[in-house]
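// run 5 | inverse folding | seed 20
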């Protein structure tokens, strides 16, 4: 039952992240197109970009938190039931790699937010 819960939460969180990231990419592309067509000023586009980067950063924070919560749950479950089998080790390795990847993405988002606040972001 525990494996089903971890897998379900992981898949649901992964789908939510993919959908939110695609929406952010589409919004960024639409903003760039509007700027190119002259529908928004550079100042308005800068503020909108900052909002998009902040949204991306918040998504990264939530994603990192979910992955860390899953990792903690797997570690706690394995420690309580004494089940350090292949499945538990698989989850630990997978979630550890995902944590590193999430933190790297979060650092990138933080950098983009800082650049957008300074006015020199992409």
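// decoded
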């Amino acid at each position: 039952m525990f494996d089903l819960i971890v897998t379900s939460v992981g898949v649901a969180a992964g789908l939510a992240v993919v959908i939110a990231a695609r929406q952010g990419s589409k919004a960024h592309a639409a903003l760039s197109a509007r700027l190119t067509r002259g529908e928004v000023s550079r100042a308005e586009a800068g503020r909108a970009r900052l909002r998009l980067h902040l949204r991306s950063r918040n998504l990264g924070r939530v994603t990192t938190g979910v992955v860390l919560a899953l990792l903690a749950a797997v570690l706690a479950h394995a420690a309580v039931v004494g089940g350090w089998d292949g499945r538990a080790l698989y989850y630990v390795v997978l979630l550890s790699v995902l944590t590193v990847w999430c933190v790297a993405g979060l650092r990138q988002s933080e950098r983009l937010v800082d650049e957008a606040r300074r006015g020199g972001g992409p």
